[in-house]
Structure formats: C-alpha cells, structure tokens
Design a protein that fits this description.
With 303 residues, the chain is of the alpha/beta class. Helices cover 39% and strands 11% of the residues.
C-alpha cells in the first residue's frame, strides 16, 4: 500500500509539471507571430483547445503510464494478500467428548420460576463435583421434573438462593436435566460446593446413595458422559488432580487457601459432609475412567 501511495504522488507531480509545460508552450506559440517574414504565407490559426492538447501530450503519456503502473502494483498487492494463510480461530480441544442429551430447565421449572439476577460466569470449567440430592430413591423417572422443581423451591424459597445450586441433575434412568440458568455449554458459576463454586460444575444425582444403596448404572454412565463433555471443553483429564483456591472459610479450606483436589470429586472432598454418599463415592473411580475413555484418552496410569 505504501508503494501505491508513492506512485500516485509521483503521477500527481508529473501532471502538475505537464500543466505548467502546456502553459509555457502556449506562450511560445503566441510569440511566433512576430517572427514570420513579410512574404511568408500566414497559416490558419489552430484552435486553442487543440494547442493545449498538443502541448499536454507528453505529460498525459507519462500520467497514463503511471496509472498502468499503479494498476499493476494494486494487482500484485491483492495477489499477495490472497496468498496469505487465513487466520483460524482457537483449535478444538485435543480430548473432547460428545455432548449428551440434556433436558432444558424450561421442562421442569414451568410456572414456578422466580425473578433472579443475571447468571455469573467463569472463564472455564476445570473440575466437577458430584452430589446426591438426599431425596427418596423409589421415584418414577417421569416424576423427575416435579422433584427438581421441589428442590428448586426449597433452595430459592427456604434458603433464599437466587436459583437452584446444581448446574445439572441426573435421574436414576440416566436422564440429564439442565439445572442452574445460564447455558449448558457455558462455564456458569453454580452454588453447589461452598468455597469451590468457581471454575467448577455441580452434578447432582437424584436420590440418596448412602452405604449399601445400589446406584443405577444408567445414572453412573450419564454422570460420566456429562463430566467428559464439560471437562473436555477445556481439555481437562477427568482422572487428574487440580489446584483450586477456596473462596469461603466455611469449606474444608480457609478462604484463600489452595487445595489439590481430584478433577472429578465428591462433594465431601471440599466440604464437611457425607455427600454424595458412600455408595456413589465408591463409583467415582469408574466414572473417572469412563469419562476419560469418552474423551479418547488411552493412558491407563496416573495422569
């Protein structure tokens, strides 16, 4: 582009010189009247516009040449820009997993929705906390939306929270429900693990899974698939450990303290509780392995 500007400036200078030259040529032609001899036949005078055109021919030729040059430079610059590689966006994570089917919150919240502030977000999700809801286990899966709506009413009414705390909920048939508002694919800040809600996702299993209670395989598989997808968005290995900073001294760690926790952890890893129950806690190693496999990871040792 700099070369093009220089060529154009040069063309303008030549045009100005051509104009001055044409004016000087007209003056010289006028001066020739006094040089003709007495017997010289006087030719018919040329029209003034023709004289100007004749005087300008050299300058116009130069300007035309420069215009052609400018066109050539523009074509060369355009070709150079076209040859440059296109800048692509951020690359996809090396280890990602397919998004499982997620039932939107509109299915369960219905007309029970309360006014609430806009969702809050983190930069990404680097850990998952697994919970149980401490509710009855013998429910029909068709009643799951009603149960979630009951949990929502308890947390927003009885506890005066702005929304349900869990990001996702999974019933015993393996159906995944969107919990807290803000978008399933976005890093929504939840209210599920005191002190460690930032950069984490909370997945709640509908039921109570204390020692000796069977955990449905469909539920285990869906928790693994959901964790694999959410962690895969940031290319995080579900079997690894992560360093998180506590934001609340009500957790197991004082505010500001850094804790090394499993990427896929039970609630009790960060808070003084028995959640998600001994039975579900015992299934966490299986959930980690399944989630890693769904991400396409083949490493079988300690990450």
């Amino acid at each position: 582009m700099r070369a093009i500007r220089q060529v154009v400036l040069r063309a303008r200078r030549l045009a100005r010189r051509s104009t001055r030259s044409s004016t000087r040529g007209l003056r010289e032609l006028r001066g020739l009247k006094g040089l003709r001899g007495p017997r010289e036949r006087r030719p018919a005078p040329l029209p003034r516009p023709l004289l100007v055109a004749l005087a300008c021919l050299p300058g116009l030729a130069a300007v035309a040449a420069l215009v052609l040059c400018v066109g050539g430079v523009e074509q060369a610059v355009t070709a150079s820009l076209a040859a440059r590689p296109v800048q692509r966006g951020a690359q996809s994570p090396a280890h990602s997993a397919a998004r499982p089917r997620i039932v939107p919150r509109s299915v369960w919240v219905a007309d029970a929705a309360r006014p609430q502030p806009a969702p809050r977000y983190d930069d990404k999700v680097v850990a998952v906390f697994v919970h149980h809801t401490d509710s009855p286990n013998g429910y029909d899966c068709a009643d799951a939306p009603r149960i979630i709506r009951y949990l929502y009413a308890g947390q927003t009414g009885g506890r005066d929270w702005d929304d349900i705390g869990y990001n996702f909920l999974v019933d015993r048939c393996g159906t995944i429900y969107e919990g807290r508002a803000g978008g399933t694919g976005r890093p929504v800040t939840g209210a599920h693990t005191q002190g460690f809600n930032h950069r984490t996702t909370g997945i709640a299993a509908l039921g109570t899974f204390t020692s000796g209670v069977p955990v449905p395989q469909a539920m285990v598989d869906s928790i693994a698939a959901l964790a694999a997808w959410k962690l895969g968005l940031a290319d995080v290995d579900p079997r690894a450990r992560v360093r998180l900073t506590s934001s609340n001294s009500g957790s197991r760690y004082a505010a500001g303290a850094t804790a090394a926790l499993p990427v896929l952890a039970g609630h009790k890893e960060a808070y003084m509780t028995s959640c998600p129950g001994a039975a579900l806690t015992a299934r966490l190693p299986e959930i980690r392995r399944t989630a890693a496999r769904l991400q396409g990871r083949t490493f079988t040792g300690t990450p």
